[in-house]
Amino acid sequence: MTAPVVAVLLSTYNGVAYLPEQLDSIAQQQGVSVLLHARDDGSRDDSCAKLRARSDRWPSLASIAPSPNIGVTRSFMELLRTAPEADFYAFCDQDDCWFQDKLAVAAGTLNGGKDPAMYCSNVMLADAALRPLGAAPVNGDTRFEHLLFENIAFGCTVVLNRAARDLVLQREPGQGAVMHDWWCALVVSAFGRVHYDPVPRLLYRQHGGNAVGQTPGRAAQVVSEAGRFLRNARRFYRPHAQAAEFEARWGERLAHDRRRVLRRFIASKESLAARAGYAMSGPVIRKRPLDALVARALILAGWY
């Protein structure tokens, strides 16, 4: 039997300090054939030189150069659109370290198929030196109704089968999408199946340059989230913009019950009375009761 082919989609941005360890871990993947497809999002460091140095293993890296800076979500969507033909498509950050069975487990879970399917897993949080800190606190609820309010998919763990990749590319998101991983999980949960693996399959490095970070332990997570909220309250929690984007792109194709849930949430921002009504009795599904309570408070304030 031939090994499944996985296109690993790597977006880099000023990540030269950690990139070599990530590239080594990709090269050490077992049970799959890896096609590394990279895009640099306007780096000002030597990220592109580090990538070109691996062209002996992945010839596609030989001519890589900085591209215009378009941000993480658009960069990954560009990678997904231009990826080589493969059985599966895996998003990849520049600063983690993958366990050797990461892609093989994902491919075995998805197992091909004609229906859209997405795999994601938990991660082992690690410090800048890759010392493990503990697994991330994640609720593996893959229902569309949950994903409207909360993302469970770390982008660095996401693997799409070909049907899911084609589905996502049918209607690419605009600026309303919060992140590429959350958007993909929402689309696939609506029209296919999302598989969540509770076992960590990589070391998720935490450092000052993370686009999105995590902290081990509930108390530390609360402190971290409070800091993010104080820095920019109106950008802290943005599921409403993403829901409106999803309605514009996919609304007419949704099953009736899901579209009703989606439209009720979108309509909640039309007035103070609508926000108050939704905050009091609308469905808000998050991993912890306190998180749901915070979401309801943000809905009431109009900061969602």
Q: Low-confidence parts, pLDDT < 50 over ≥5 residues?
A: none
The strand order across the widest sheet is 2-1-3-8-5-9
As for the CATH topology of the largest domain, it is: Spore Coat Polysaccharide Biosynthesis Protein SpsA, Chain A
Radius of gyration: 19 Å
Rough shape? globular
The appropriate CATH architecture of the largest domain is: Alpha-Beta Complex
State the total count of DSSP E strands.
Answer: 10
Computed structural class: alpha/beta
According to CATH, the homologous superfamily of the largest domain is Spore Coat Polysaccharide Biosynthesis Protein SpsA, Chain A
Roughly what is the average pLDDT, rounded to an integer? 93
| Major sheet | 6 strands, mixed
In what range is the share of β-strand residues?
15-25%
Count of DSSP-assigned helices: 13
Which CATH first-tier class of the largest domain would you pick? Answer: Alpha Beta
| SSE ordering | EHEHHEEHEEEHEHHEEHHHHHH
Question: How many structurally independent domains?
Answer: 2
How far apart lie the N and C ends?
49 Å
Helix content range of the residues, please?
40-55%
